[in-house]
Amino acid sequence: ASTLIGPGPFTQFTTIITQATPPSSPPIDITISVINSTAIHSTWRIPDEDEHNGLLESVEVRLVGIDIETSITIPVQITTNDTSLQTTILSPLQEYVNYSVSFAVRNGAGLSPYSNPVYSRTDQAAPSDTPQNVTTELLNSTSIRITFYPPSAINQNGPITSYNISYTGEPYNTVTQYKAISIANPIYPAVQSVSINITGLQEYNNYTFSVRANNREGSSGLSAQVEQTTGISEPTASPRFTLISASTTEIHTVISPPIAIDQNGPIINYEVRISTPYFDILDYVTNVTPNSTEYPLESNLNFVATGLEEFVKYSLRVRAYTSVGPGIFSDALLQWTTAAAPSHTPQNITTQALSPTSISVTFFPPPGIDQNGIVTSYNISYTGELFDTVTQFETITITNPIYPAVGSVSNSITGLQEYNNYVISVGAINVKGMSEFTDGVVQITNEAVPADSPTLVFQSLSTTEISTIILPPTAI
Fold first, then answer.
1. Which residues pair with residue 76 across a beta bridge?
2. pLDDT range class, residue 458, cuts 50, 70, 90
3. Strand positions, DSSP E, 171-299
4. What whole-number distance in Å separates Cα of residue 452 and Cα of residue 455?
5. What's the rounded Cα separation, in Å, for the pair 271 and 285?
6. Residue 314: Cβ within 10 Å count
């Protein structure tokens, strides 16, 4: 206290501590640099002492992702109010994230304002998650479209530059194959779906697909597998015929299915086409059902072509059907039916008397379809009406016969009785027998001078008369 004369002595000092408030400034001199994909190196200083507003306890570092939604706060304990440069490793962080990094300092009253942010991006790393939502769509018998989404944004760990699709077939194409998809001008993080058509696949085959994502640093694991079966198609190979036996009107065969990988779906039907270039026989088609519904079809099928003509060379071809349609025809199985005796007589028989003792006989072979084999000879039957009444036969052998026989055949019958009616018929012969004889044709031989003289019988009637009886020559 003071009077007019002057001041008196001071009292003893009394210490009074004001109430603390949060620091008024954040740390200063902040620098950051990336170390790797999950760590950032930082340096900083605590603020000036007059900004502390109390005893400093810790520094808090706030990291907020700019392009990826993520944030983390890392506390750093302070054991001294040392104003020298401090170092802190910020980790573990998310791969390939552009972080906004801000610092604040805490005392007992609270937290200071955060510093202005500084920015740094962690390095890339291989994706830590697989592509998502993989689906497939059947396009046709050899193509499948696969669609998927990128890994979740936070697990891409860098721009996705490509994808690898692996696929394996069953029961065919069992060796795993790969399809690469490059991403032009990739964005980060990737968000759009990706689709690609996988072509050149095996028809009616089950495929298992999975997808892997790639960035600059490596690859993700494979996604969950999805399955898709390609569509049914026409068979791309033919069945096969094997001959068992043949008879006069049947051909016995075995039909083997197309090779398994070319069936392209369950075989539901065989179409057998039977044709021949002979005798204007029309082609005919028959359909037969396999004796099994297995896939692939492995069992053979016995097939008998019936109702055929004797001694005809037939062409048998077969093709297989799936529900989509027919495949290709097999190579032709060429097979003759076996011979039988001709089933028709020779045709258009005509005769002509050449002399009193000979007749010319002309005729044509049986119709080609009824020859039933190579006609090697003909049998001519002839019987006289008044004389030579015992039936006689004459054989005509064909030199170098052809099949079917088509030309006319002529033969002369000699040693006949003059002026005698003859009934003439012809039968055709092959290796299996003879046809029936034709209906008889009547031909008379020419007249000739009598071969014998008449007989005279005399009787005296008087001295001047004689009775004469003239008897004709013998009848023959």
1. 59
2. confident
3. 177-182, 194-198, 206-215, 218-219, 226-229, 240-246, 251-256, 269-275, 284-288
4. 9
5. 7
6. 21
> Helix-strand-coil percent breakdown of the chain, rounded to 5?
5, 45, 55
| Three-class secondary structure of residue 289 per DSSP | coil
Of 115, 124, 50, 41, the closest CA to residue 81 belongs to 50
Cα–Cα distance measured from residue 255 to residue 243, given in angstroms and rounded to the nearest whole number: 9
Closest Cα partner for 27 from 48, 55, 46?
46
The tokens 């501590």 sit on which residue?
17
Q: How big is the chain by its Cα radius of gyration, in Å?
A: 58
Give the mean model confidence (pLDDT) for residues 339-359.
97
Give the closest residue to 411 by CA, choosing from 375, 363, 365, 469: 363
User: Which amino acid is residue 413, in one-letter code?
Assistant: I
Token pair for 103? 């610092």
pLDDT in the model for residue 248 = 95
Joined tokens for residue 232: 């049914």
281 phi/psi in degrees, rounded to 5:
-75, 125
Contact between residue 459 and residue 437 where contact means Cβ atoms under 8 Å apart: no
**What is the mean predicted confidence (pLDDT) over 284-288?**
93
Question: Per DSSP, what are the bridge partners of residue 32?
Answer: 42
Q: What pLDDT is recorded for position 13?
A: 84
Percent of the chain with pLDDT over 70: 100
pLDDT band of 327, cuts 50, 70, 90: very high
pLDDT of 225 above 90: yes
Going by their DSSP bridges, the two strands 177-182 and 162-170 should be labelled as: antiparallel
CA distance 302 to 268: 16
Asked if the model's pLDDT at residue 16 lies above 80, the reply is no
pLDDT, tens digit (0-9, with 9 covering 90-100), for 366-400? 999 999 999 999 999 999 998 889 999 999 999 99
Q: How far apart are CA 39 and CA 121, in angstroms?
A: 10
pTM: 0.74
Q: How many helices (H) and strands (E) in the chain? A: 1, 33
Helix (H) or strand (E) run with residue 316 in it: strand 313-321
DSSP for residue 155: G
Burial of 472 (0-12, 13-18, 19+ CB in 10 A): exposed
